[in-house]
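Standup notes, structure subgroup. Blocker cleared on the ribulose-5-phosphate input:
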Amino acid sequence: MAMTSFPDTLPRNRLLAEISLWSADLLNLAQDMARIAPYGDILHIDVADARFTPGFLFFPDLVARIAEAAQAPVHVHLMTQGDIVVAQAQQFAEAGADLVTVHAETGPDGLEALDMLAARGIAGGVALTLEQPLEALEPFLSKVAMVTLMGTRIGIKGAGLDPEACARISQLRCRLDARGLEKVLIAADGGIRETTVPDLRAAGADTVVMGSLAFGAEDLPARFDWLRGLGAQLA
Ligand SMILES: O=C(CO)[C@H](O)[C@H](O)COP(=O)(O)O
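Run returned:
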């Protein structure tokens, strides 16, 4: 079931660890979820239909099982486009997502999806690909709890952070502050590495979507000690 208090229960004084289940061992998903449970502030689930992205990723029945077992809020990132986004957002809300993010590239369909989510008491988010200007976010900002900015091409993992990613986060932070939307969280998604997290945090990211940085860590407690120390230092 969705934890309807999202995002109010999240700490705001440090960088949040948003763990991407796409980078888990999918054959041992339950074990990997248990392994990262003490550290993950949010579980990030990428949903893709191989039209907006190169491949398919995750589906509602699986997300429902994940949500039942989850010890952290579940964020579904809908990497899809077209009027189908309203029905998709509804399916993932019913599956137990606490936050459903649509892409700004969906335009009026995405706005309709956010209104539908709000009517059901589910938090909404908006995401933007690297290629799109930040202006595309404007109609969405007053309707969302989180903005996810891609730092790599969408729908791929293992890629390096784009050189523009930090500047885009800083510009978005200014945009949000200017509109009195200081509480809206900024998530950095893609290219999250030990070398890039300090700059992303300094630019204004509230949460980083960790794939291999979490599941590939040899020493998980040390990796998250590092992350939390870093967040406290830069907050
Ligand atoms: O959508 C993503 C990146 O765009 C995913 O969150 C992915 O899990 C990241 O993996 P990695 O950090 O290992 O590249």
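Discussed briefly. Residues 33 and 97 are 16 Å apart (CA to CA).
Next: hand off to the docking folks.
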